[in-house]
Amino acid sequence: MKVIHLSVECFPVAKVGGLADVLGALPKYQRKLGVDASVVMPWYNRKFTQENKFDHIAYGAFYQGSELLHYEILKEANDLLGFPLYLIRIPGKLDREEVYCYPDESEQWLSFQHAFLHWLKADGIQPDLINCHDHHVGLVPFLLKYSYEFQQFSHVKTLFTVHNGQYQGWMNWSKGILLPSFDSWQWGLLDWDGVINPMAAAVKCCDAFSTVSEGYLKELFIEANGLQSLFSSESQKGYGIVNGIDTDYWNPQLDTLIDSNYNLNTVEKGKSQNKKSLCEQYKLDPSLPLMSFIGRFAIEKGADLLAEIIDQLLGNIKSKMSIFILGSGDQDIQDALQQILEKYPKQLAVYFGYNESLAHQVYAATDLLLMPSRVEPCGLNQLYALQYGTIPVVRGIGGLKDTVIDVQETGGYGIVFPEAHVEDAVQGVIRTLEIVNQVDLLSEIRQREMHLDFSWNKSAQKYLDLYTKLLK
């Protein structure tokens, strides 16, 4: 079975969020199951592309509107990721340093999708299935079926995976002229509320769509930034498959990015040593419980609540603790955290930016991880925390609700609070501190967490089962 994963992110080439982690692991686990899985993504002017060897395997050109675009296909030469990785480079479009936030983003992703299909046709590549990830590649299912240029691929099955339904790739119909020529009678499949909506087009035209947790699938029927009625009407072809994690990379016993490795038998000593190292570096007290937040400073992540949560926790004599924040994003949120940092310089440390090595050390060092998300399709941070014996304190939504069981329930190993409110999050943290301050109970919870299996093994099999169903 030949499966191509199409995405604009893949770890470690280019990572902004959890999408990259999924693409960097799922194909590897699928290949263990016998699937001929590969990844195709844009070329970025980044460390990975600069420092590794790539073979130039194809060249081509096509018109995007009146603009002639030349592309080349590069294949990573040494199988560093455990699966074939192909990059598409287009001068002026797919040759930049950052993944997002360029004013011509629509033209970027259009050129990526067109070049991908043009390459398949030119080189006679015939995949059995294309797994399209998020709106950036949402036009592919439509183009396979209704573009005159690519009719030879109309039989190819497509699975569209929704990692975040809030972002849909809207573009004005004036950009319709940039698409490969298509059957104009089918224009309605591209349209939603008067604009071209790639996510809506994908859901309408794909053979099936999946979400990254069962809980998030149900939530899309209720709230999906205007597409809830579409998801509901197409529900018969919707599937929820929770994300996994790459336990070769996220493994405290083997992790080369943390100061002290540990396993189930040495977790108490290992986390204590890692906490001591982190606290010494950032001038925090290692004798206090240590809480962390890792992620984008975005409203959907509840990051706008962080400053007030921290103020209430550190201003409360009952919750003696330290807090470490690692992330970047919204400038207003960052400014608020900077102000609260100045108020509590001995109990709070903040690292503004993305630092993969530091993230590993924080998971290994901290006692609890806070995720006050408003929207969380799956969430991977809570799974990393569990793998490292860190108690996740999460808002009960989406994939967080699917993967974290509250300690008050049988077999529970985390803390779940109901709403993305400051008061709910604070109470969740205080509940967790009561566990952290009881040595025997904390040890029991950590053992329970680290026995859990959230690897990609089960989820990769579920994807394979779905692929097989579609191909039959």
TrEMBL record:
It catalyses: [(1->4)-alpha-D-glucosyl](n) + ADP-alpha-D-glucose = [(1->4)-alpha-D-glucosyl](n+1) + ADP + H(+). It comes from the Bacteria. Keywords: Glycogen biosynthesis, Glycosyltransferase, Transferase. Transmembrane segments: none annotated. Pathway: Glycan biosynthesis; glycogen biosynthesis. The keyword Calcium does not apply. Residues 2-230 form the Starch synthase catalytic domain. ADP-alpha-D-glucose binds at residue 15. Its EC number is 2.4.1.21. Residues 281-434 form the Glycosyl transferase family domain. GO terms for molecular function: alpha-1,4-glucan glucosyltransferase (ADP-glucose donor) activity. Pfam families: Glyco_transf_5, Glycos_transf_1. Belongs to the glycosyltransferase 1 family. Bacterial/plant glycogen synthase subfamily. PANTHER family: ALPHA AMYLASE DOMAIN-CONTAINING PROTEIN (PTHR45825:SF11), GRANULE-BOUND STARCH SYNTHASE 1, CHLOROPLASTIC/AMYLOPLASTIC (PTHR45825). This is Glycogen synthase. The lineage of its organism: Bacteria, Pseudomonadati, Bacteroidota, Sphingobacteriia, Sphingobacteriales.
